[in-house]
Amino acid sequence: MSVEPAVATDRGAQRPPVDWARARNQVYAAGQADALVPVELPLPEADGLTLAEPLTTLTDLPAFPTSSVDGWAVRGTGPWRVVGRVLAGGTPPPLPENGTAVEIATGAMLPDGADEVLRIEESTRTDDGRVAGTPRTTPEWRSPGEEAYAGEELLPAGTPVGPGVIGLAASCGYDQLRVRPAPRAALLVFGDELLTAGPPQAGQVRDALGPAVPAWLRRYGARVDPADVIGPVADTLSAHVAALRTALAGADLVCTTGGTMHGPVDHLHPALAELGADYVVNTVAVRPGFPMLLARVTGPDGRNRYVAGLPGNPQSAIVALVSLVAPLLAGLQGRPMPLLPYVTLGEPVAGRGNYTHLALVRVDPVLGTARPVRHVGSAMLRGLAQADGFAVIEPGGTGETGARVPLVPLPLLPSVGS
């Protein structure tokens, strides 16, 4: 999908909000267009990153016939005369003639001339030292190429790298992987009314997003260092511009909290205009979370960085994260667009007219039914802390009991290595 840029101005709210599904597609396409440059890393360091190219086999898997059991590799009919022994890692000589056998360990290379493998527990020894028994009809070894042939694609580009991928790559003979690095993210917290420690007090509230947003960003694959969380930033235009400029110098994505409207101390739109930003998305037709945005700033090096403006209300901010930031980070990492599973509503969920409604729900893991949680106001976090995700009620729709609706799942654990 093409992205139509609009120059950032402090009159951005006059534009109609973007449909929620279209907004997700637009920010993902922007991230794809600016996907991070791949790097070559040793296997352990690739954990949690993303394959930048398909993983193909460098050799047949297995590369040679290997015994799948401890026993005897035999030639011809028995009983068999034992002529040697082969362990994993050794190269056995061929069996010389019918009626001969070698003792073989699991994972050892099958000698040329072997017809079958007899399990050790199903064998006996004759008085003259020969081996007797009846091999099973099913082969007890793995043939070359049984798992994959040389050059076969095992995993596509865009696959997240975890322990299974690392082990598979090692088995194929890789020492390094070509991967896209984790995007570096920063957070600027706006709002003179915010406290960074202790309980709320008259006129001031505790900042809940400064500690929480970096944890969400890590769950979507970003890297956030403690020094990259700044705030509260003073409620002046000059402070906003300076903080954004500093953060953009070292980050691929800068998230901000608050200031996305056009009130007397909402300086984000003017600050973006001063930085020469253009909007990828400016306001989304979704409830909660309506005043969210994603803007693009081209740096002196010609590379694009992004600013995600999250609303100041905590739950609305997380709606903006799952709506705009998660698809953007997927694109920057070269990962597929996050697909939304479907759930069945176990209770009705009201629609929001012409807006998409993202409703916090808990999902029964056995029945697959979703039920709305309580305490879900824009400024509340109690419901979010108990929820599994957001049920998506489309514009003009009503979520009646039994309806099948998309679910935006909330990730439970950080992306490995982020």
From TrEMBL:
Its cofactor is Mg(2+). Residues 186-331 form the MoaB/Mog domain. The keyword DNA-binding does not apply. It comes from the Bacteria. One of its GO terms (biological process) is Mo-molybdopterin cofactor biosynthetic process. It catalyses: adenylyl-molybdopterin + molybdate = Mo-molybdopterin + AMP + H(+). Pfam families: MoCF_biosynth (PF00994), MoeA_C (PF03454), MoeA_N (PF03453). The keyword DNA-binding does not apply. SUPFAM superfamilies: MoeA C-terminal domain-like (SSF63867), MoeA N-terminal region -like (SSF63882), Molybdenum cofactor biosynthesis proteins (SSF53218). One of its GO terms (cellular component) is cytosol. Keywords: Magnesium, Metal-binding, Molybdenum, Molybdenum cofactor biosynthesis, Transferase. GO terms for molecular function: metal ion binding; molybdopterin molybdotransferase activity. Pathway: Cofactor biosynthesis; molybdopterin biosynthesis. InterPro entries: MoaB/Mog-like_dom_sf (IPR036425), MoaB/Mog_dom (IPR001453), MoeA-like (IPR038987), MoeA_C_domain_IV (IPR005111), MoeA_C_domain_IV_sf (IPR036688), MoeA_linker/N (IPR005110), MoeA_linker/N_sf (IPR036135). Its EC number is 2.10.1.1. Belongs to the MoeA family. Catalyzes the insertion of molybdate into adenylated molybdopterin with the concomitant release of AMP. This is Molybdopterin molybdenumtransferase. It comes from Micromonospora pisi.
